[in-house]
Protein backbone atom coordinates (compact mmCIF):
# COMPACT_ATOMS: atom_id res chain seq x y z
CA UNK A 1 0.00 0.00 0.00
CA UNK A 2 1.19 3.58 -0.68
CA UNK A 3 2.43 5.81 2.13
CA UNK A 4 -0.77 7.88 2.61
CA UNK A 5 1.18 10.71 4.29
CA UNK A 6 3.01 11.38 1.03
CA UNK A 7 0.16 11.47 -1.45
CA UNK A 8 -2.15 14.46 -1.59
CA UNK A 9 -5.05 13.73 -3.99
CA UNK A 10 -5.96 17.45 -4.23
CA UNK A 11 -2.41 18.26 -5.34
CA UNK A 12 -2.55 15.47 -7.91
CA UNK A 13 -5.86 16.75 -9.29
CA UNK A 14 -4.52 20.28 -9.65
CA UNK A 15 -1.46 19.04 -11.55
CA UNK A 16 -1.13 20.48 -15.05
CA UNK A 17 0.24 18.01 -17.59
CA UNK A 18 2.32 19.54 -20.37
CA UNK A 19 1.01 19.26 -23.94
CA UNK A 20 2.78 16.55 -25.93
CA UNK A 21 3.23 15.89 -29.63
CA UNK A 22 3.15 12.77 -31.74
CA UNK A 23 3.61 12.12 -35.45
CA UNK A 24 2.75 9.07 -37.50
CA UNK A 25 3.09 7.93 -41.08
CA UNK A 26 1.41 5.25 -43.20
CA UNK A 27 4.14 2.85 -42.10
CA UNK A 28 3.01 3.25 -38.46
CA UNK A 29 -0.61 2.73 -39.50
CA UNK A 30 0.20 -0.52 -41.35
CA UNK A 31 2.52 -1.79 -38.59
CA UNK A 32 -0.24 -1.16 -36.03
CA UNK A 33 -2.80 -3.08 -38.11
CA UNK A 34 -0.41 -6.06 -38.36
CA UNK A 35 0.16 -5.79 -34.60
CA UNK A 36 -3.53 -6.35 -33.90
CA UNK A 37 -3.75 -9.29 -36.29
CA UNK A 38 -5.04 -7.72 -39.53
CA UNK A 39 -4.40 -10.07 -42.49
CA UNK A 40 -2.63 -12.54 -40.13
CA UNK A 41 -4.70 -15.53 -41.22
CA UNK A 42 -5.44 -14.35 -44.78
CA UNK A 43 -2.90 -12.04 -46.44
CA UNK A 44 -5.48 -10.95 -49.04
CA UNK A 45 -8.45 -10.60 -46.66
CA UNK A 46 -10.89 -8.40 -48.57
CA UNK A 47 -11.95 -6.49 -45.42
CA UNK A 48 -8.44 -5.91 -44.11
CA UNK A 49 -5.90 -5.50 -46.92
CA UNK A 50 -6.76 -1.79 -47.08
CA UNK A 51 -5.33 -1.35 -43.53
CA UNK A 52 -1.86 -2.54 -44.54
CA UNK A 53 -1.56 -1.88 -48.29
CA UNK A 54 -2.73 0.50 -51.03
CA UNK A 55 -5.29 -2.01 -52.21
CA UNK A 56 -6.52 -1.53 -55.80
CA UNK A 57 -4.34 1.57 -56.05
CA UNK A 58 -6.18 3.35 -53.22
CA UNK A 59 -4.40 6.63 -52.48
CA UNK A 60 -4.10 6.22 -48.70
CA UNK A 61 -3.92 3.29 -46.32
CA UNK A 62 -7.06 3.18 -44.14
CA UNK A 63 -6.72 3.57 -40.38
CA UNK A 64 -8.29 1.19 -37.87
CA UNK A 65 -10.29 2.99 -35.14
CA UNK A 66 -8.28 1.65 -32.17
CA UNK A 67 -5.19 3.28 -33.67
CA UNK A 68 -6.51 6.30 -31.72
CA UNK A 69 -5.16 4.75 -28.52
CA UNK A 70 -1.62 4.83 -29.90
CA UNK A 71 -1.76 8.61 -30.17
CA UNK A 72 -2.08 9.01 -26.39
CA UNK A 73 0.93 6.78 -25.71
CA UNK A 74 3.11 9.66 -26.89
CA UNK A 75 1.99 11.32 -23.65
CA UNK A 76 3.98 8.97 -21.43
CA UNK A 77 7.58 9.14 -22.61
CA UNK A 78 8.88 8.64 -19.07
CA UNK A 79 6.04 7.02 -17.13
CA UNK A 80 3.09 8.57 -15.38
CA UNK A 81 4.42 11.31 -13.16
CA UNK A 82 2.00 12.78 -10.61
CA UNK A 83 3.19 14.91 -7.67
CA UNK A 84 3.61 12.67 -4.64
CA UNK A 85 2.16 9.51 -6.17
CA UNK A 86 4.33 6.56 -5.19
CA UNK A 87 3.82 3.37 -7.16
CA UNK A 88 5.79 0.45 -8.46
CA UNK A 89 5.67 0.73 -12.29
CA UNK A 90 6.16 -3.04 -12.52
CA UNK A 91 2.74 -3.54 -10.87
CA UNK A 92 0.86 -1.20 -13.22
CA UNK A 93 -1.93 -2.82 -15.26
CA UNK A 94 -4.15 -1.31 -17.89
CA UNK A 95 -7.69 -1.40 -16.47
CA UNK A 96 -9.95 0.27 -19.03
CA UNK A 97 -9.95 2.33 -22.22
CA UNK A 98 -12.57 4.76 -23.51
CA UNK A 99 -12.18 6.24 -27.00
CA UNK A 100 -14.27 8.84 -28.85
CA UNK A 101 -13.62 9.32 -32.58
CA UNK A 102 -14.66 12.61 -34.15
CA UNK A 103 -13.49 12.23 -37.76
CA UNK A 104 -11.72 9.61 -39.88
CA UNK A 105 -7.98 9.51 -39.28
CA UNK A 106 -5.64 10.73 -42.01
CA UNK A 107 -3.06 8.07 -42.93
CA UNK A 108 -0.24 10.34 -41.70
CA UNK A 109 -0.43 13.25 -39.29
CA UNK A 110 1.24 15.52 -36.75
CA UNK A 111 -0.69 15.47 -33.46
CA UNK A 112 -0.86 17.79 -30.46
CA UNK A 113 -2.09 16.11 -27.24
CA UNK A 114 -3.76 17.87 -24.33
CA UNK A 115 -3.55 15.66 -21.24
CA UNK A 116 -5.49 15.89 -17.96
CA UNK A 117 -6.41 13.77 -14.97
CA UNK A 118 -10.08 12.78 -15.33
CA UNK A 119 -10.32 10.47 -12.35
CA UNK A 120 -8.55 9.27 -9.24
CA UNK A 121 -9.82 6.52 -6.95
CA UNK A 122 -8.54 4.80 -3.84
CA UNK A 123 -9.44 1.10 -3.94
CA UNK A 124 -7.38 0.20 -0.85
CA UNK A 125 -5.25 -2.45 -2.52
CA UNK A 126 -4.86 -0.31 -5.64
CA UNK A 127 -5.03 3.27 -6.89
CA UNK A 128 -6.91 3.97 -10.09
CA UNK A 129 -5.89 6.84 -12.35
CA UNK A 130 -7.93 7.97 -15.31
CA UNK A 131 -5.92 10.00 -17.78
CA UNK A 132 -7.68 11.87 -20.55
CA UNK A 133 -5.89 12.77 -23.76
CA UNK A 134 -7.45 14.97 -26.44
CA UNK A 135 -5.59 14.64 -29.74
CA UNK A 136 -5.68 17.50 -32.25
CA UNK A 137 -4.51 17.47 -35.85
CA UNK A 138 -1.74 20.12 -35.74
CA UNK A 139 -2.28 21.47 -39.24
CA UNK A 140 -6.03 22.07 -39.08
CA UNK A 141 -6.44 22.31 -35.30
CA UNK A 142 -9.30 19.77 -35.57
CA UNK A 143 -10.00 17.50 -32.62
CA UNK A 144 -9.49 13.95 -33.93
CA UNK A 145 -10.16 11.79 -30.89
CA UNK A 146 -10.27 11.53 -27.14
CA UNK A 147 -8.83 8.68 -25.08
CA UNK A 148 -9.51 8.05 -21.43
CA UNK A 149 -7.02 5.53 -20.11
CA UNK A 150 -7.64 3.85 -16.75
CA UNK A 151 -4.51 2.54 -15.08
CA UNK A 152 -4.74 0.16 -12.16
CA UNK A 153 -1.78 0.65 -9.83
CA UNK A 154 -1.55 -2.42 -7.65
CA UNK A 155 -0.24 -1.64 -4.16
CA UNK A 156 -0.69 2.15 -4.50
CA UNK A 157 -4.05 2.55 -2.74
CA UNK A 158 -4.74 3.54 0.87
CA UNK A 159 -4.08 7.27 0.43
CA UNK A 160 -7.56 8.50 1.52
CA UNK A 161 -7.48 11.06 4.29
CA UNK A 162 -10.98 10.28 5.60
CA UNK A 163 -12.86 7.05 6.41
CA UNK A 164 -14.62 6.98 3.02
CA UNK A 165 -12.30 6.03 0.14
CA UNK A 166 -11.26 8.93 -2.08
CA UNK A 167 -13.06 8.86 -5.44
CA UNK A 168 -13.17 11.59 -8.08
CA UNK A 169 -14.18 11.58 -11.73
CA UNK A 170 -15.17 14.46 -14.00
CA UNK A 171 -17.06 12.67 -16.80
CA UNK A 172 -20.60 11.27 -17.34
CA UNK A 173 -21.46 7.82 -15.95
CA UNK A 174 -22.55 6.55 -19.38
CA UNK A 175 -18.91 6.70 -20.49
CA UNK A 176 -17.77 3.92 -18.18
CA UNK A 177 -16.80 0.50 -19.43
CA UNK A 178 -18.99 -1.69 -17.25
CA UNK A 179 -21.52 -3.53 -19.47
CA UNK A 180 -24.11 -6.19 -18.78
CA UNK A 181 -23.57 -9.11 -21.12
CA UNK A 182 -26.93 -10.25 -22.59
CA UNK A 183 -28.03 -13.79 -21.87
CA UNK A 184 -29.23 -14.24 -25.46
CA UNK A 185 -27.20 -15.90 -28.22
CA UNK A 186 -24.65 -13.47 -29.68
CA UNK A 187 -25.53 -11.75 -32.98
CA UNK A 188 -22.07 -12.60 -34.26
CA UNK A 189 -18.91 -14.41 -33.11
CA UNK A 190 -15.35 -14.03 -34.41
CA UNK A 191 -12.43 -16.27 -33.50
CA UNK A 192 -8.83 -15.26 -33.99
CA UNK A 193 -5.58 -16.77 -32.78
CA UNK A 194 -2.93 -14.38 -31.49
CA UNK A 195 0.62 -15.30 -32.46
CA UNK A 196 3.22 -16.27 -29.80
CA UNK A 197 5.21 -13.19 -30.92
CA UNK A 198 2.12 -10.92 -30.94
CA UNK A 199 3.29 -8.66 -28.09
CA UNK A 200 6.77 -8.36 -29.64
CA UNK A 201 5.19 -7.12 -32.85
CA UNK A 202 2.58 -4.92 -31.15
CA UNK A 203 5.15 -3.12 -28.94
CA UNK A 204 6.72 -1.62 -32.07
CA UNK A 205 3.65 0.62 -32.24
CA UNK A 206 4.93 2.51 -29.20
CA UNK A 207 4.23 0.70 -25.91
CA UNK A 208 7.63 -0.65 -24.85
CA UNK A 209 6.62 -1.66 -21.29
CA UNK A 210 8.86 -4.70 -20.56
CA UNK A 211 5.88 -6.49 -18.95
CA UNK A 212 5.08 -7.55 -22.51
CA UNK A 213 8.55 -8.71 -23.56
CA UNK A 214 10.77 -9.49 -20.57
CA UNK A 215 10.22 -12.84 -18.77
CA UNK A 216 11.88 -11.62 -15.53
CA UNK A 217 9.80 -8.43 -15.33
CA UNK A 218 6.66 -10.46 -16.09
CA UNK A 219 7.46 -12.79 -13.15
CA UNK A 220 7.95 -9.84 -10.76
CA UNK A 221 4.54 -8.58 -11.91
CA UNK A 222 3.00 -11.97 -11.06
CA UNK A 223 2.75 -13.62 -14.49
CA UNK A 224 4.32 -16.86 -15.71
CA UNK A 225 5.45 -15.17 -18.94
CA UNK A 226 5.11 -11.76 -20.70
CA UNK A 227 1.47 -10.84 -21.26
CA UNK A 228 -0.27 -9.21 -24.20
CA UNK A 229 -0.86 -5.44 -24.16
CA UNK A 230 -4.46 -4.69 -23.17
CA UNK A 231 -4.73 -2.36 -26.15
CA UNK A 232 -3.66 -5.21 -28.45
CA UNK A 233 -6.54 -7.37 -27.14
CA UNK A 234 -8.88 -4.37 -27.58
CA UNK A 235 -7.57 -3.97 -31.13
CA UNK A 236 -8.40 -7.62 -31.92
CA UNK A 237 -11.91 -7.22 -30.47
CA UNK A 238 -12.78 -4.00 -32.31
CA UNK A 239 -11.28 -5.37 -35.55
CA UNK A 240 -13.71 -8.29 -35.16
CA UNK A 241 -16.59 -5.79 -34.87
CA UNK A 242 -15.37 -3.80 -37.90
CA UNK A 243 -15.21 -7.05 -39.88
CA UNK A 244 -18.41 -8.78 -38.78
CA UNK A 245 -20.75 -5.83 -38.20
CA UNK A 246 -19.34 -2.83 -40.10
CA UNK A 247 -18.52 -4.90 -43.21
CA UNK A 248 -14.94 -3.66 -43.04
CA UNK A 249 -15.77 0.08 -42.76
CA UNK A 250 -13.67 1.54 -39.87
CA UNK A 251 -15.35 4.95 -40.11
CA UNK A 252 -18.59 3.55 -38.67
CA UNK A 253 -17.06 3.43 -35.19
CA UNK A 254 -18.02 6.43 -33.05
CA UNK A 255 -16.89 5.41 -29.58
CA UNK A 256 -15.36 2.41 -27.81
CA UNK A 257 -15.27 1.24 -24.21
CA UNK A 258 -13.27 -1.72 -22.96
CA UNK A 259 -12.54 -3.17 -19.54
CA UNK A 260 -9.60 -5.55 -19.17
CA UNK A 261 -10.85 -8.36 -16.95
CA UNK A 262 -7.89 -10.72 -17.08
CA UNK A 263 -4.48 -10.94 -18.75
CA UNK A 264 -3.96 -12.67 -22.12
CA UNK A 265 -0.86 -14.68 -23.01
CA UNK A 266 0.45 -14.23 -26.58
CA UNK A 267 -0.46 -17.32 -28.62
CA UNK A 268 -3.91 -17.69 -27.04
CA UNK A 269 -7.11 -17.77 -29.10
CA UNK A 270 -9.50 -14.83 -28.70
CA UNK A 271 -13.21 -15.43 -29.28
CA UNK A 272 -15.17 -12.17 -29.54
CA UNK A 273 -18.94 -12.40 -29.09
CA UNK A 274 -21.09 -9.46 -30.22
CA UNK A 275 -24.67 -8.42 -29.44
CA UNK A 276 -26.44 -5.59 -31.30
CA UNK A 277 -28.58 -3.18 -29.24
CA UNK A 278 -29.73 -0.46 -31.67
CA UNK A 279 -26.60 1.35 -32.77
CA UNK A 280 -24.57 -0.11 -29.90
CA UNK A 281 -22.57 -3.33 -29.97
CA UNK A 282 -22.00 -5.04 -26.64
CA UNK A 283 -19.02 -7.36 -26.84
CA UNK A 284 -17.06 -9.83 -24.77
CA UNK A 285 -13.74 -11.47 -25.59
CA UNK A 286 -12.98 -14.90 -24.15
CA UNK A 287 -9.67 -16.81 -24.19
CA UNK A 288 -10.69 -20.13 -25.74
CA UNK A 289 -7.96 -22.27 -24.15
CA UNK A 290 -8.73 -21.12 -20.56
CA UNK A 291 -12.46 -20.37 -21.11
CA UNK A 292 -12.01 -17.04 -19.30
CA UNK A 293 -13.45 -13.63 -20.19
CA UNK A 294 -10.58 -11.20 -20.67
CA UNK A 295 -12.30 -8.09 -22.04
CA UNK A 296 -15.80 -6.65 -22.27
CA UNK A 297 -17.25 -3.37 -23.41
CA UNK A 298 -19.32 -1.62 -26.01
CA UNK A 299 -18.95 0.17 -29.32
CA UNK A 300 -21.29 2.89 -30.61
CA UNK A 301 -21.75 2.90 -34.38
CA UNK A 302 -22.78 5.59 -36.85
CA UNK A 303 -24.72 4.85 -40.04
CA UNK A 304 -25.66 1.25 -39.22
CA UNK A 305 -27.40 -0.40 -42.18
CA UNK A 306 -30.91 -1.45 -41.10
CA UNK A 307 -30.61 -4.66 -43.17
CA UNK A 308 -28.29 -6.19 -40.57
C1 LIG B 1 1.94 12.22 -18.40
C2 LIG B 1 0.89 11.16 -18.35
C3 LIG B 1 0.06 11.12 -19.59
C4 LIG B 1 -0.46 9.73 -19.83
C5 LIG B 1 -1.42 9.61 -20.95
C6 LIG B 1 -1.68 8.25 -21.46
C7 LIG B 1 -1.58 7.16 -20.43
C8 LIG B 1 -1.44 5.85 -21.05
C9 LIG B 1 -1.03 4.82 -20.03
C10 LIG B 1 -1.08 3.50 -20.69
C11 LIG B 1 -0.46 2.48 -19.82
C12 LIG B 1 -0.63 1.21 -20.52
C13 LIG B 1 0.21 0.14 -19.87
C14 LIG B 1 -0.30 -1.16 -20.38
C15 LIG B 1 -0.34 -2.21 -19.58
C16 LIG B 1 -1.06 -3.39 -20.02
O1 LIG B 1 -1.45 -3.53 -21.14
S1 LIG B 1 -1.37 -4.59 -18.83
C17 LIG B 1 -2.31 -5.81 -19.73
C18 LIG B 1 -3.75 -5.49 -19.83
N1 LIG B 1 -4.43 -5.47 -18.56
C19 LIG B 1 -4.67 -6.59 -17.87
O2 LIG B 1 -4.29 -7.69 -18.24
C20 LIG B 1 -5.45 -6.45 -16.58
C21 LIG B 1 -6.54 -7.48 -16.50
N2 LIG B 1 -7.35 -7.29 -15.30
C22 LIG B 1 -7.02 -7.80 -14.10
O3 LIG B 1 -6.05 -8.51 -13.97
C23 LIG B 1 -7.92 -7.46 -12.95
O4 LIG B 1 -9.16 -7.04 -13.41
C24 LIG B 1 -7.33 -6.34 -12.03
C25 LIG B 1 -7.10 -5.05 -12.81
C26 LIG B 1 -6.00 -6.82 -11.42
C27 LIG B 1 -8.31 -6.06 -10.91
O5 LIG B 1 -8.60 -7.26 -10.28
P1 LIG B 1 -8.81 -7.29 -8.70
O6 LIG B 1 -7.65 -6.70 -8.00
O7 LIG B 1 -9.20 -8.67 -8.36
O8 LIG B 1 -10.00 -6.27 -8.55
P2 LIG B 1 -11.37 -6.43 -7.78
O9 LIG B 1 -11.09 -6.88 -6.38
O10 LIG B 1 -12.32 -7.22 -8.59
O11 LIG B 1 -11.87 -4.92 -7.77
C28 LIG B 1 -11.25 -3.93 -6.93
C29 LIG B 1 -11.80 -2.59 -7.34
O12 LIG B 1 -11.21 -2.21 -8.59
C30 LIG B 1 -12.21 -2.07 -9.62
N3 LIG B 1 -11.70 -2.73 -10.82
C31 LIG B 1 -11.51 -4.04 -10.98
N4 LIG B 1 -11.01 -4.29 -12.20
C32 LIG B 1 -10.89 -3.11 -12.82
C33 LIG B 1 -10.45 -2.72 -14.13
N5 LIG B 1 -10.05 -3.60 -15.03
N6 LIG B 1 -10.47 -1.41 -14.44
C34 LIG B 1 -10.90 -0.49 -13.54
N7 LIG B 1 -11.34 -0.81 -12.28
C35 LIG B 1 -11.32 -2.09 -11.94
C36 LIG B 1 -13.45 -2.79 -9.10
O13 LIG B 1 -14.62 -2.25 -9.62
C37 LIG B 1 -13.31 -2.63 -7.60
O14 LIG B 1 -13.81 -1.35 -7.24
P3 LIG B 1 -15.09 -1.27 -6.29
O15 LIG B 1 -16.17 -1.97 -7.03
O16 LIG B 1 -15.33 0.19 -6.09
O17 LIG B 1 -14.67 -1.98 -5.03
TrEMBL record:
Annotated GO biological process: fatty acid beta-oxidation
GO molecular function: (3S)-3-hydroxyacyl-CoA dehydrogenase (NAD+) activity; 17-beta-hydroxysteroid dehydrogenase (NAD+) activity; enoyl-CoA hydratase activity
Residues of the Peroxisomal multifunctional enzyme type 2-like N-terminal domain: 23-155
CDD domains, per database record: HDE_HSD
Organism: Cicer arietinum
InterPro entries assigned to the protein according to its UniProt record, in alphabetical order: HotDog_dom_sf, MaoC-like_dom, MFE-2_N
Gene name of the encoded protein: LOC101492992
A cellular component annotation (GO) from this entry: peroxisome
Pfam families referenced in this protein's UniProt entry, alphabetically: MaoC_dehydratas, MFE-2_hydrat-2_N
Highest taxon of source: Eukaryota
Full protein name: Enoyl-CoA hydratase 2, peroxisomal
Domain MaoC-like: 186-293
